[in-house]
Amino acid sequence: MTSPETLQVLNRVFGYDSFRDGQQEIIDHVTAGGDALVLMPTGGGKSLCYQIPALVRDGVGVVISPLIALMQDQVDALRALGVRAGFLNSTQDPDERRMVEAEFLAGELDLLYLAPERLKVDATVRLLDRGTVSLFAIDEAHCVSQWGHDFRPDYLALSGLHERWPEVPRIALTATATKATHAEIASRLKLEDAKHFVASFDRPNIQYRIVPKNEPRKQLLDLLRTEHNGDAGIVYCLSRRSVEETAEFLVRNGIEALPYHAGLDARTRTEHQARFLREEGLVVVATIAFGMGIDKPDVRFVAHLDLPKSVEGYYQETGRAGRDGLPSTAWLAYGLADVVQQRKLIDSSEGDAAHRRKLGAHLDAMLALCETVDCRRVQLLAYFGQSGEPCGNCDTCLSPPESWDGTVAAQKLLSTVVRLRRERRQKFGAGQLIDILLGRRTPKVIQHDHDSLSVFGVGDDLSEPEWRGVVRQLLAKGLLAVEGDYGTLVTTEASDEVLFRGRKVLLRREPKKQAGARTAKAR
Ligand code: ADP
Ligand code: ZN
């Protein structure tokens, strides 16, 4: 039963008339002292789920969050509503910290935000012992998952909360969790017996579109000019350099754009973030360092110029679009070079083989999403263990890609890979392979005598972009793999099924025109 007090807090403190989907059940459960694990998409309204119980229950609600840079803003926003909030993290000097600690002990706080590493400090634990904690809220709970894409070792210490304070209810929240991550959060945080609340991950107002990458900046500019003129949006790039260059390119073309990446000094970053939040119609070009916890309702588009490393990351980043529920675009341009580059990053990444396997699996899932012939939304939701119907609001629904029987093309390509592999000392990437298939006598082809191979020129029924599409899709299907520094293509065990056991390969033909966009002239 919802207490009248809960409704009062919702109206008087936060100024809302009603709860959003799921909020009320969660708030009632936690207010009554129950543990909860909450999976709710970005913008779903997770914060209220612990803020209201913290205000209604006796004591101070302790919120554990990795977003140190945002704590000041979050606390300021709460104080503006009359909520007594404070935070403790490494950015404060000892005096500031002591003041917050005194407020906590005097019972003058409703909410205390803590960086996770604070809990490893004995003094913090003793501090919490001396005050009254009404609940623990563990925000961004997926950070405890080693299988997930955003693991933070400090989160592992949170498994001890329950032992130390068995009476205090805990609520863990995340906007991203596959079935496996969900289970891992529950077990690591000892929340198996907690009530699990899983909201739908669908964001129906976001239109998902994934296009082949040709001239990415021009394609982006075209998208902005034709569909998002004057709109606020975020453009994600992989590298700092590409962030800088893309921002400059947009500015040169009359679009107000600001760069954001970890290489900029703190003041510039804060300023750019503040301007993005405050002003209308600004575009931020950023690495993924930007956006966590940013609550700007009217972000009309999120564009990726490089392939995200995982579906979880993609979902979180695109989820920053359209929190106000109005139509928004999630647009991603990706190409073969992305795949090669990401594989290289994985191969050269620190960590053991298991870690690299994990990264590889994340990338594979992302590729499968890019190359699917089915509804993007169905595929995305399926990744998070939820089912759905074809949505009518993604590129594959709006202009269904034709599929074609690519078995023969795949066989030609794979047998070329096998032949090149026999030249053990040499490593060749997709470019050389395609030149051979197309029968091009380039200097490199002649140098290696590749025009004498039996497969030379057997692929001239397809164009170069088509062959690139074939390579990409075979990679996405695990029928081909990339190895080593030079993006060498190699066959996999599954390749044999195509080469020798008659396995059929259905491929996606790229639609000539992208859904909703008039990007044809950009290509
Ligand atoms: P999340 O943490 O799940 O991404 P937030 O808690 O930041 O979401 O909430 C997203 C936005 O929705 C915020 O602007 C918040 O003020 C607003 N919001 C949350 N709950 C309600 C509600 N019951 N009614 C109206 N707006 C709400
Ligand atoms: Zn769809």
From TrEMBL:
Its cofactor is Mg(2+); Zn(2+). The keyword DNA repair applies. GO terms for cellular component: bacterial nucleoid; cytoplasm; replisome. SMART domains: DEXDc (SM00487), HELICc (SM00490), HRDC (SM00341), RQC (SM00956). Its EC number is 5.6.2.4. It holds the Pfam family Helicase_C. Keywords: ATP-binding, DNA damage, DNA recombination, DNA repair, DNA-binding, Helicase, Hydrolase, Isomerase, Metal-binding, Nucleotide-binding, Zinc. SUPFAM superfamilies: HRDC-like (SSF47819), P-loop containing nucleoside triphosphate hydrolases (SSF52540). It comes from the Bacteria. The keyword DNA-binding applies. It catalyses: Couples ATP hydrolysis with the unwinding of duplex DNA by translocating in the 3'-5' direction. GO terms for biological process: DNA recombination; DNA repair; DNA replication; SOS response. GO terms for molecular function: 3'-5' DNA helicase activity; ATP binding; DNA binding; four-way junction helicase activity; hydrolase activity; metal ion binding. Belongs to the helicase family. RecQ subfamily. This is DNA helicase RecQ. It comes from Prauserella muralis.
